Amino acid sequence: MLDKELRSMIGDVKDGRMDRRAFIQRLAAVGLTAPMANQILAIGGVAMAQSPSPYPPTKRGGGGPLKLLWWQGPTLLNPHFATGTKDQDGSRLFYEPLASWDVDGHLNPILAAEIPSIKNGGLAADGKSVTWKIKPGVKWHDGKPLTADDLVFTWAYASDPATAAVSISTYADMSVEKVDDLTIRLVFNKPTPFWANAFVGAYGCILPKHLFADYKGSKSREAPTNLAPVGTGPYKFVEFKPGDLIRGELNPEYHMPNRPHFDTIEMKGGGDAVSAARAVIQTGEFDFAWNMQVEDEVLLRLEKGGKGKTTYAVGGDIEFIAINFTDPNTEVDGERSSIKTKHPILSDLAVRQALALLVDRESVKKAIYGRAGRTTSNYLNGPEDFVSKNTKWEFSVEKAIALLEKAGWKAGADGIREKDGKKLKFVYQTSINGPRQKTQAIVKQACQKAGIDVELKSVVASVFFSSDVANPDTYSKFYTDIEEFQIPMTQPDPALHMKRYISSQVASKDNKWQGQNFPRWVNKDYDAAIEAAETEIDPVKRAALYIKCNDMLWQDVVFIPVMHRLTVDACATALQPVVSGWANRTDNIQDWYRGA
Amino acid sequence: MSQYVLRRLLIAIPSLLGISAVLFFVLALAPGDPFSELATNPNVPPEVQAALRARFGLDDPIYLRYLHWLFAMAHGDWGFSFVSRMDVDRLILQRLPATLYVIGSAQVLALLIAIPVGVYAATKPYSLFDQIANTLAFIGFSLPTFFTGLLFILIFSVTLDWLPFVYTTDIKATGIHYVLEMIRQAIMPVAVLGLFQAASMTRFVRSAMLDVIRLDYVTTARAKGLGQAKVIVKHVMRNAMIPVVTLIALQMPAVFGGALVTEQIFRIPGIGSLLISSILSNDTPVVMAVTFVFACLVVLFNLIADVLYGWLDPRISLR
């Protein structure tokens, strides 16, 4: 039914009877993200709206220096080795992909002449190939022309396991062919509904073949250009001191008119978030600081000075409490939380539902995240207008108590509920991080009122998030009952975000706890839905499948979403940055300018 | 003399080996690994992580890794940073100038304050000057540098807006402006560190002077009719300086090692901040190199201090 309606709607947009905006809003109403809606249009044969942000400067340069402050400085400048976003941000100043994600989650052509669509013949109807046309006349910083060979090489470089590039999975399961000097074709092994992954965004940055050809595979780490990038970007590389400073200067031959606005760029690293906020908002020593993980209260106080402001970008990052479906206190075959066990208490749905009722998301938002968070009932959160209408949340101690009473959990002599001799006691772990410890305290308080005893545990972040097989305190070993952390959504498509929780991904000793399904939740329907979605080329059916997956996670209370987190940056009052919640901070650096 | 130095250097070898072994095994036992940031990234499959670990030899047994490291170090290869994917020695050399400049200036400032104040206070014990100097010194070393650092930033950067609080290594100006700007941005960190050092050193100089000033030979010197200045400088100070020299010599490695906290607060790209960020990102080769170099410097400057004793007091013979 929805399918049919959508097809007629796509037809309307094609013929101009309905505008794109209305279409996207309609889809948002049924729970589709704007990026998804755009890809649906693209596959349906409508060219993606290229919504360039207004860019008033009328000449290249003249904007003076742009001073960026990253409180964790970039440590290397090869986008395909970038271990963290800081490195991707730094590399992106010099290297460019075919397209970036703009503020609304649309594709914005950078090195591509146009965004592929069915109409312009770029997308194959079966979803098995994409043809990209490269903008003619683009030159590397050393003067050599950019050609299809560079793209084919980038694919070969990144997909070679010996190179040990972190972008390997972006370029796996496909091959890249040169059609002519300025055209390439991506051929996928299976129908790929989300085709805008390779050559887009941070991992999409294209490397110059003439400088990296000798350093493919096992010699990759010896490339001098790993530390001295030669790209096509708006700024040319001048100097790099790992962890401290990156300097660049205007590229006079940049391929976009009137860009870039700034004459020089520098990215300083080090220090902490609060003093970075101070240097931008209070003293104005810097123009832009990244990732203000600072309490909203502090930011509000700093902003009173008036030299700077905070800016927010909406993505899909979700902070949640995950439930352990296995027993963390029983050891089976040398591992705790083994999939062969069942959690003695949390396997009771009523207990999980009661827990969800006890997480006061509104208070967490008010007391901790402020403007940087949004309350949500969904695990999968799209841009602003994405709300799966099927789910809801509330905070009610009374309802939680009623639910527990009904399920047979009666208060014992010490006020803690018990059933069949099992006490309602949990260990709740998270990483050491101010906001997380406060959230723990808020949840613990509510649980106490409902007769649940919660023991709090905090683990140093470097241990909690490590893949150290010998350490019992990692998030993937999950040797506690519940745990809280954040999973960022790295691209405007739910495939990777949702695939984590299929049965075959259960973290266990056998896969050295590298399996991504850390709650160890097993659900055949979920597996089937994910498997179907992976190859479903019909965008409507595919989207419906992912919404169904989200709702399954909600119904079964696998996660208790705490906060849909926005990215927060500090920015000088006059600076006009273009930051997308779906990409790196610097993904649209060519469009930044300083207003009057 | 040269025989003594040679013997001391030879003795240093086993102790440095011991230090390096302890450092290496403790670091190897510490939790976390350099690729942990990749763990929560769904784009990076576990196989890539495993390949990276294998590439950097993280899966080898510990003793083998230690032997590899030792062998490389003996050849002058300081190792390869996991995180920056560049040679550790280049990384350290990049950071050294800022540390030498800031910490070195702070030490000089500390000496310039501590020696005159300490000496003068000792010549007039319990006078008003001595009391004030003592009180200030007490306050000085009671306040931790992270506190005074933030206080200075609040006063001089935020409120008065006189000085920058982010240290930049690429000052745009040239000539005299460059020099002035370099001095301007170093004022706060140098003052914070220098005053802290000066406080403890002043008390040290004062008590060392007081020990000597009451000795009979000083009274003899005065009885000979020598002037106050000559007595203090030539007779008292020279002897009182022996323990002070030890203290200074032992602080010299810190000039190279950087100041962890202060560098972090003022974003000085020195060895200290390199060490902190490397520890946080589990970049073991860098941590290892920095700490090991630090250990070498401590051993070296101890030797230098011992040699200096002989020059200050010829009665101490070095055999």
Protein architecture, described:
With 596 residues, chain A is an alpha+beta fold. Chain A is 27% helix and 19% strand. Chain A folds into three domains: 61 residues, no CATH class; 269 residues, Periplasmic binding protein-like II (D-Maltodextrin-Binding Protein, domain 2), CATH 3.40.190; 182 residues, Dipeptide-binding Protein, Domain 3 (Dipeptide-binding Protein, domain 3, Roll). Chain A contains 17 helices and 21 strands. In chain A, the strands form five sheets. In chain A, strands 1, 7, 8, 9, 10, 11, 12, 16, 17, 18 and 19 form an eleven-stranded mixed sheet that branches. A three-stranded antiparallel sheet of chain A has the order 4-6-5, covered by helices on one side. A three-stranded antiparallel sheet of chain A has the order 13-14-15, with no helix packed on it. Chain B has two domains: 87 residues, no CATH class; 215 residues, MetI-like fold. Chain B is 75% helix and 0% strand. Chain B has twelve helices and no strands. Chain B is mainly alpha-helical. The model of chain B has no long low-confidence stretch (mean pLDDT 83).
User: How large a portion of the residues of chain A is in β-strands, by DSSP E?
Assistant: 15-25%
- Main sheet attributes: strand count, strand direction, barrel closure of chain B: none
CATH class of the largest domain in chain A: Alpha Beta
Second CATH tier, the architecture of the largest domain in chain B: Orthogonal Bundle
Which blocks of ≥5 consecutive residues of chain A have pLDDT under 50? 45-50
The total of helices of chain B stands at 12
By CATH, the architecture of the largest domain in chain A is named 3-Layer(aba) Sandwich
> CATH superfamily name of the largest domain in chain A?
Periplasmic binding protein-like II
**Cα shape of chain B:** globular
Structural class of chain B: mainly alpha
- Point out poorly predicted stretches of chain B: none
Separation, N- and C-terminal Cα atoms of chain A:
52 Å
CATH topology grouping of the largest domain in chain B = MetI-like fold
Specify the helix fraction band of chain B.
Answer: over 70%
Along the chain, the helix and strand elements of chain B come as HHHHHHHHHHHH
Query: CATH superfamily membership of the largest domain in chain B, which one?
Result: MetI-like
From the 3D structure, determine the CATH topology of the largest domain in chain A: D-Maltodextrin-Binding Protein, domain 2
